Amino acid sequence: MFNLNSLSGQNLKGPCIGAVKVNKAFTYTDRSYECAAWWEEREALKGVHPVYIARSPYMPRTLYVLADISAKVTNDFFPALWGGVAVSNKPYEPKHIGESRIVHSHISVEDAIRSTGNSPGSDLDWYIDPSWWPVFVEEALSELKDYYKRLPEFWDQWAKLNKETWKPESFQDSRWTFDDEYRSRLSMVAHFGMNLEQWARRIEKINWHTSHWFGRDSDYQRGLWTQNTEWSKTIPIKINE
User: Fold this and answer.
1) Which of 36, 71, 125, 164 has its CA 20 to 30 A from that of 203?
2) How far apart are CA 71 and CA 96, in angstroms?
3) Measured at the alpha carbon of residue 234, what is the angle toward residues 230 and 236, in degrees to the nearest 5?
4) Last-in-domain residue among 100, 128, 156
5) pLDDT computed for residue 175 by the predictor
6) Spatial CB neighbours of 186, under 8 Å, sequence gap ≥ 6
7) Same domain, 67 and 144
8) Domain-located, residue 239
């Protein structure tokens, strides 16, 4: 079975766990260059592309689904500038049209799994191999238990507040009022409640989808699954064993 801890540090992209089919080409503009005026426009190519399990460097505790979609450059703007003013007196001509690129498309775990097995034909069709669904449940269970375990600490800090007896902890905190403290403590309760909801709903949605497709001993259901996911077989998806 896949080790969730392997997605950490610099290694935030895991194995290929599924596929995405682009039925309607879309355009993505990359503005991430060191000069704010520069950009490159890319058109995603129709067809089937690989999907990976990944973690965001900004939310390292949360798994998500990442598609690497092949694309071509359709336009760009990289003029030589000095203080934001073009150096050349000639109109800029795009330099990279037709070159190959990759467009990274993110989608939540719930949405990717919920789309798996549906009738194909949407702008984007997603397929996440069912062998990986328990991995996402495993993560959600771990996070759910952790947030539940830590909730009482923050609940107690909020619940024991008394406006009549409360005082700032130090002179430096003298501008910090009771209302500030109350809002701060309550916001932590809300934070934990939000995460309890998030992880419990993820488990609920994945379990429902599993039951919908594989909880029934039905030739019709099995045939429908095969028919609706046949397009994904062009991608070498790793089975989680």
Assistant:
1) 125
2) 12
3) 115
4) 128
5) 81
6) 158
7) no
8) no
Q: Which amino acid is at 152?
A: P
Q: How many CB atoms lie within 10 A of CB 184?
A: 12
Give residue-wise pLDDT tens across range 126-155.
999 999 999 999 999 999 999 999 999 999
Dihedral sign (CA 209, 223, 17, 32): negative
Distance CA 34, CA 134 (A): 41
Same domain, 116 and 199: no
- The type of residue at 157 is Q
* Tokens 């007896």, located at residue: 165
In this prediction, residue 171 carries a pLDDT of 62
Q: Which domain holds residue 223?
A: 135-234
**Tokens 């097995």 — which residue?**
117
| Residue 58 confidence class, pLDDT cut points 50, 70, 90 | confident
* Helix spans in the chain (H): 109-115, 133-159, 178-214, 219-229
How far is CA 224 from each of CA 120, 204, 220, rounded to the nearest angstrom?
11, 23, 6
CA distances 79 to 43, 90, 161, Å, are 21, 10, 60
> What letter would DSSP give residue 50?
E
CA distance 23 to 25: 7
Q: Which of 128, 148, 163 delimits the end of a domain?
A: 128
